[in-house]
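Could you help me review a protein record that somebody else here produced? What it holds is a sequence and that sequence's fold in token form. I need someone to confirm that the token line plausibly describes how this chain folds. Take the sequence as given and treat only the tokens as open to question. This is what I was given:
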Amino acid sequence: GKLGRYPPWPGKIVNPPKDLKKPRGKKCFFVKFFGTEDHAWIKVEQLKPYHPHKEEMIKINKGKRFQQAVDAVEEFLRKTKGKDQASSHNSTEEKNRRNSSEERGKQSAGEEKRKASLSEGKVKKGTGEGKKRVSSVSSERGSKSPLKRTQDQSPRKRGRPPKDEKDLTIPESSTVKRVMTGTVAGFKWPPSVSEPVKDSDPHFHHFLLSQTEKPAVCYQAITKKLKVCEEETGSTSIQAADSTAVNGSITPTDKKIGFLGLGLMGSGIVSNLLKMGHTVTVWNRTAEKCDLFIQEGARLGRTPAEVVSTCDITFACVSDPKAAKDLVLGPSGVLQGIRPGKCYVDMSTVDADTVTELAQVIVSRGGRFLEAPVSGNQQLSNDGMLVILAAGDRGLYEDCSSCFQAMGKTSFFLGEVGNAAKMMLIVNMVQGSFMATIAEGLTLAQVTGQSQQTLLDILNQGQLASIFLDQKCQNILQGNFKPDFYLKYIQKDLRLAIALGDSVNHPTPMAAAANEVYKRAKALDQSDNDMSAVYRAYIH
């Protein structure tokens, strides 16, 4: 994101879990962010003291979650101040008692050493000498998402065992708090569905990262700090640290990657895979689209079968169920390149029946299959900010980790094949219905003599405020319908979502109504425009 796109966020330095290794390189601290359950290793130069930057933070971010975080900071500071006053009083009494007792003599050399370390900005284990400081953290250019977390750690002397959080104090003279900058991401990792939730297993240490934010975590933490989350459906998923380091680099897999389909979504995905150092072979039905990526370092595959046969993991992202089937089952298709051990990941948004059929034929040839449709648009694809919904082969999901981290901000593992397709259709059903409602409101405002801009301003001040709402309305008001998500594809998703509801006798009247409006827009030649062009279906 651009500088200032994501606001600073208050956090405090805490002690890391004993089995979490400190990243190599520059000095950094383990930070817990207020108002969330997120934690991260933060470099010294990326922290700033809370009080001098409090007003700046409040001006930048007026969101409800941020206000809750600020309230949590203030509550923490009030409690800390009360404890400090009490412990300071106790320390003074203790000092006087020591001075009046001659047989106690002078303090030991060890105590002198601890005092010295306190004055130099080191951590002191004690109850009254030094105050906890709260820092603010923000992300800027190059970062993928706002950072929000909290906890208590501080630098400690080498060779000393880690102290408990309750014993940590950080002196006022500490220079350890500055503004956070860096690339961050959160990812879900799948355990076996049959595994129980293991909170006591050290491998599943409490290191829960927000599903909607991108926590900054260094690479060493990726498989070590996980927390299992049991979902209502009985499937389990783990959200883990991204391997995205603070400097924005990731460790790409050494497996050869293939990619089929260079549309609005596929193009951004391939670009990010290449940027992060993956070896990628590309194919597209119209070969000219491959040229740009060949210049960026990709290899050219002549057919889907050739790509699959020469690569370890092949991704595909095409338009609809028919295209997805043709790609696998057609002449020189994916299936012809599948042999035992070959991996195929279908990122197309299709129905569960289609993806189940494809999985069966791939697996029957000894291949491994993962469905991984993505939630997002062209801009999010270009920015590497997609949300990936995966299901199928869990081991393959893990093998794809560096790829998913390059292309997305969050990844969910949803269990058996078909689950991701269903979830994706539901997500797009909600999005498509919302877009039609926005268009309906804007046009109704216009025909009743109300200002469309004022309507947008009002919505942006209310609970419906979102990036999606603002961007789509702005584009409509500017008459800009350049595709970020093709209208024909959101209509396809609505159609498939309605069929999904039909298969289980579940009513979908809102989606059905929205679908009719998109069909009207298609009849008005809006198929290849952005979904926001549904607006034109309402113009008399």
About this structure: The chain has 17 helices and 19 strands. The two ends are 39 Å apart (CA to CA).
